[in-house]
Here is the input.
Amino acid sequence: MSTPALKIYNTLTRTKEAFRPIDPAHVRMYVCGPTVYDYAHIGNARPLIVFDVLFRLLRHLYGAEHVTYVRNITDVDDKINARAAERGISIRELTEETNKVFQADVKALGCLEPTMQPRATEHIAQMIAIIERLIASGHAYAADGHVLFDVPSMPNYGRLSRRSLDEMIAGARVDVAPYKRGDMDFVLWKPSKENEPGWDSPWGRGRPGWHIECSAMSWAHLGETFDIHGGGIDLVFPHHENEIAQSCCAFGRDVMANYWMHNGFLQVEGEKMSKSLGNFVTIHELLHTEKFGGHRWSGPVLRLAMLMTHYRHPIDWTVARLNESRALLSKWGKLVSIGIKTHFDRDDDWWWSAPPSPILRERLLDDLDTPGSVASLSSAYENAYSSQTPEAFRLLASNLRFLGVMDQESLASWGVVEGGPLEGLPLGHIDSLISDRNAARASKNWAESDRIRDELAGMGIALKDNKDGTTTWEVKR
Ligand code: AMP
Ligand code: ZN
Here is the structure.
């Protein structure tokens, strides 16, 4: 099998590298998943979407059955304990309820299900096994019911984040505790009080630290060394640094994963998202309420808005961005529907099971250049619009589908449905009438503007003037 030319930016080397899987017949990726104590916010959606695009691309390159994508569920954590107590419900109830909403959110965002979604509470035995190895090899010590990782025992600790031990101590808010030998030593296991969740262990009844959970789950499902490890940029230190320390020292390996990928941060309307600033918004709220910008936003609109920026850059999440995404999808969706209606049988999957176009593929191969991919969709649109050939429609549809921004369901949401009335609509004529009407409005010629609205209404087209000054249209049903 020839190696496809995928390049990805590796945080470990700070360079864009050719991706070479350990075993092309089994490509393995781990991404840190949610701690299920509260609804996921729109910043959390970024790694979900970014690594879903990568998962889709890897499946395309290596074959769907040759890629394993593991995204864990952290269902033991002090934030979970605190929230369950606050709400007066059991931990199980809280994590089940939160996970259910999370699964619905990611599905709405067009993400494929990962191959596996292991839960931390189902991997306690593996965590204990790793901790025992670390103690046996002199990389961890038990003290006062706790087990700590002995950071100075690992000579190249700090390799991923490229910080020296002194810098880390100066920069980090380290917990000072009497049972710690060194300031940077971190918790692998800690004792649980009676009212806290706990498991029997050689060090008494207790629970794991956060970092050990990912070392155990990646080991259980992907082995001691695997290909790609992903998450948001904030996880580089300490979480990923500590995962590397645990896994490499426990298994006597130089690397845990060969490629470390991190998405940039998302801020809202130019500011850091925070509850106190009142700009904190969950995926659930965006999808189901009008809290953000006075609209509900569909999953594909949110997803495309995310893909308009390269995953390593910061994103400014704004209403203007969502409007732009919605306008693009509406335009593309209408054209795809016309193509399907004109040329294909709706039930025939053929029209969008084509592989992505060479341009889209090339953009994605270059470290997931999704803004370039969106630009390539615009040219696919132009091409389909002007040529109206089945091939051009099919290419647009399959590209949209490949990026996960359109499926049968979302097509229906653009007002283009079974037996839809769009067939034969003069698209160019509609566009030019709309721009004539906008010109009339700009010169306050309301009579002309109304006349054009009526003319379009006579063709079955309903106009909607948006707050941002754009006009979109739908077919009246
Ligand atoms: P957490 O629940 O904080 O562990 O976050 C889950 C995932 O979302 C991690 O990969 C984080 O790096 C990522 N994440 C959290 N906040 C943001 C944000 N504002 N922008 C982008 N990614 C984020
Ligand atoms: Zn992790």
About this structure: The chain has a mean pLDDT of 90. The chain has 16 helices and 14 strands. The domain at 23-263 is CATH 3.40.50.620 (Rossmann fold).
